[in-house]
Amino acid sequence: MRAKLLSDIKTELNRLTLGSNVYATRTAVDKLYEVYILSCVIQSLNLIGCTLEARNSNDRATTNFDFRLSPGYIYSPAASSSFIHIIYQGKEYELHNGVRVLGKADVLHELDSAIITRDEAVRCRQNNFQPRQSKIKFLAECKFYGADLPLHLGREFLGLCSEFSIRVKSLTSNVGSNNIHKLLISHRQTENFHISPSNPDKVDIFIKWISNELRQVL
Amino acid sequence: MKEDIEQLRNLIRELDLQWLDEELEEIILSGKLQQKDIFESNRKTSKGIEQIAYTENEQLDIIISALKNYFITLPIVQSNTEKSLKESLKISKITFYENQQDIFNKIDLNTQKLSGLLNEIKK
Lengths: 218, 123
What we know:
heterodimer; A: alpha/beta; seven-stranded mixed β-sheet; 6 helices; globular; B: alpha+beta; 4 helices; 4 strands; 57% helix
C-alpha cells in the first residue's frame, strides 16, 4: 500500500518535471516568483490610477514582454528585461525586474523588483550608468521556498535595506519565518509573507499595502 | 515515518531536483528555535532560546509542504502571472530568455491527483 502510494507520487512528479523545464534549476523557479510579484505591483499601480505601458529594453512600446533569467544592466538591451513605463499624476517612472543598481556604498545590488524615476532610467540608458539608490522609489526582494525561509535571507535583506534610504522596501515570499519576522520588525523593516495564489486574502492585502505606500512616495 | 522521509528524499534525488534536496537539507539541519526556562539554584530566573531538531513528523511536514508549494502552487503562480500581465499590459507574448532561448514552458496545471496523494501520506 505504502509502496504503491510512493510509486504513484513519483509518477506524478515525473510527469510534471518532464513536462516543464522550469524545474531544471532553482533560478528558473525564483524568476517565476519574481514575475508573479511584479504582476502584483502592476495591480497596485492600476489601483492608484497609473497609466502603464510595456516597453522593450530599447525603450519602445511593445506587445512582446521579455524577461531575462540573470539580472542585467539597465543600459544593456541584450541583457536587460522589458520594463513598464508608469505615469502617475503627471510624473514618470519605470518598473523593472532583475536590475542592477548602485547602493549608498557605490556598490552594485540586484533588485528583483524596483521602481526607478524615469529621468534617472533614461539618463542611465543614454550614458551607460547604473541607477542610483536615491532615485529608487520601491524595491521588493522575492523568495519562493518550499517551507520556512532560512534565517540568512532575513540577514541579507537587512544588509540590502541599509544600502537604500527609501521608505518602501519589502521582503516578499510565498512562505514565512517567525525568526525573520522578528528580525525585520526589530530593525523597522517590512516583510510580506505567504504571498501566493494559495492565500488570495494575503495577496489582496499586499496589493493594497503597496498602492497605499506608493501613493505616499510617487 | 523515518522510512517515508527517506523514500521521499530519494525520490526527489532520482528526479534530479538537486536544488530542492539541498533546500530541504538546509531547512531540516537548521532545526527550530524554542523558548526555554532557565533555572539557577532550582529557581526560574529567566527565559532563553535553544535550538532543537525537528521531529520526524515535522520533517515529513516540511517535505510535503515543499512538494505542494513547488508542484501544486507554482503552476498556479505561472498561470496567474501570465494572465495578469497580458490583461493589465495588453501584451500578447511573454518570453523568459536565457542565452537567446525561451527557457520556460508551461507547467501542467493538472495537479489534483498529486495533491490527493500527498495528503494520503499523513493519514
